[in-house]
Design a protein that fits this description.
By secondary structure, the chain is of the alpha/beta class. It has helices spanning 5-12, 16-31, 50-60, 77-91, 105-117, 133-140, 158-164, 187-200, 228-231, 264-277, 285-292, 301-318, 340-348, 374-390; strands spanning 37-38, 100-103, 123-128, 144-149, 169-175, 208-212, 235-240, 253-257, 330-334, 352-353, 355-356, 365-369. The N and C termini lie far apart (43 Å).
């Protein structure tokens, strides 16, 4: 065998999101891009804010010795300090630059955290439906992913968490606002989860609560995203600027670790070492300096809300069933059959590309990403109606 068995198996079970994206490329070549309604990939279509381009122009117009060389693996000290001030304000805690690690996006940050905390066989509890890459990230570091179901409205289920905690549990990984559901977990839910985890901790054991928050700034209807850093001492927030600044391709994010984490000094040293030896070495130098000056800037969230409202009104009118998303830019619809893959294939007959819920660990649903033009959404609605009406 020319490649490892593990990677060969992973290829077979790899992301439905990418599969549908690739299918979209074929359909667009066949029917024309304007005639294909591609809701497969959560790739932000809004341009970065003007402040980003001004900062980019400013930094690239000045030649400064060493500006593109190595820096400390955790990131530039002044950048970490700027991020720490932002996190302190937003989360209502006192966090210093020593507890900030600049990373290659949230994906790089999650791998850095998991590399640092997992021993072979350690378990990470993940809420279903979930972002499919989590299983690969945990497996990268010889951990085991343990899935628990959320409630029917995708809120947290405390009893399910209690049932799944074992002596091997090392962390719980949550994602809010959630991909694929758009659900935002409430403060009371986080507190309940935190109390359960804290009761399992002792002098010789720590269970971490990791929150993946790239959609934190994309929240609607005056719903706020509670801070895990404020609510649980063994907490780690991982985020990026991929969605709130539309910089997905620039791979820039950070880890914010609660200063109250036990053995904080060695924990942070572990993160810094992991960031280096995983091959990231450090976050991109130019992007670090840019985002340091844009911590209070974000894309026009009202644009995403307008698209959401158009979509959910149209889908509801056509007969689709879903829980109203509170954040991110996804709708997780029920399919008229348990066989969600079959229904997604049916949608393709109408040039609609969506991702089956099976790709997120839940059958009987499909995900729509509405980070596309308003015109694409409006033009797709008659097709959605026709698809549901004709399905047998």
């Amino acid at each position: 065998m020319s490649i490892s068995r593990k990677i060969e198996e992973s290829i077979k079970t790899s992301s439905w999101i990418r599969k549908m994206f690739e299918e979209g490329t074929k359909l667009k070549a066949q029917f024309g891009e304007e005639n294909v309604f591609d809701f497969s990939l959560g790739n932000p279509d809004l341009d970065p804010p003007e402040e980003f381009f001004r900062k980019l122009k400013e930094l690239t117009s000045v030649k400064k010795k060493g500006a593109h060389g190595y820096m400390p693996n955790a990131g530039y000290p002044d950048v970490r300090n700027a991020i720490a001030k932002h996190v302190s304000r937003e989360h209502g805690i006192d966090i210093s630059s020593e507890n900030i690690i600049m990373t290659c996006g949230a994906a790089g940050g999650l791998n850095t955290v998991l590399k640092t905390i997992l021993n072979p066989g350690d378990q990470v509890i993940v809420l279903r439906p979930y972002f499919v890459e989590y299983g690969f990230y945990i497996g990268n570091h010889n951990g085991e992913m343990v899935l628990i179901d959320t409630n029917s409205d995708f809120s947290l289920n405390v009893d399910n968490l209690k049932k799944k905690i074992t002596e091997k549990t090392k962390a719980v990984l949550i994602n809010s606002p959630n991909n694929p559901t758009g659900k935002i977990y409430t403060e009371s839910e986080i507190i309940e989860f935190s109390e359960i985890l804290l009761n399992q901790c002792n002098e010789n054991r720590t269970i971490y609560l990791i929150s993946d928050e790239p959609y934190r700034d994309i929240a609607y209807d005056n719903i706020s995203v509670p801070s895990i850093l404020k609510l649980y001492k063994n907490s780690i927030m991982v985020t990026s600027f991929s969605k709130n600044l539309s910089l997905a391709g620039e791979r820039i994010g950070y880890i914010a670790a609660n200063p109250a984490i036990k053995n904080n000094d060695i924990f942070m040293a572990g993160l810094i070492l992991s960031n280096r030896i995983l091959g990231f070495v450090n976050a991109p130098a130019l992007m670090q300096r840019i985002v340091a000056g844009l911590t209070e800037v974000k894309v026009d969230i009202a644009e995403y809300k307008r698209r959401r409202d158009i979509f959910i009104d149209g889908l509801k009118s056509a007969g689709y069933v879903f829980t109203k998303p509170e954040g991110a830019f996804y709708i997780f619809c029920k399919t008229p059959t348990e066989d969600d893959i079959r229904f997604v294939q049916h949608l393709q007959k109408f040039n609609i590309l969506a991702v089956p819920g099976s790709g997120f660990g839940v059958k009987g649903y499909f995900r729509i990403a509405y980070c596309v033009s308003e015109g694409t959404i409006k033009n797709s609605l008659p097709k959605f109606r026709e698809a549901l009406k004709s399905y047998k």
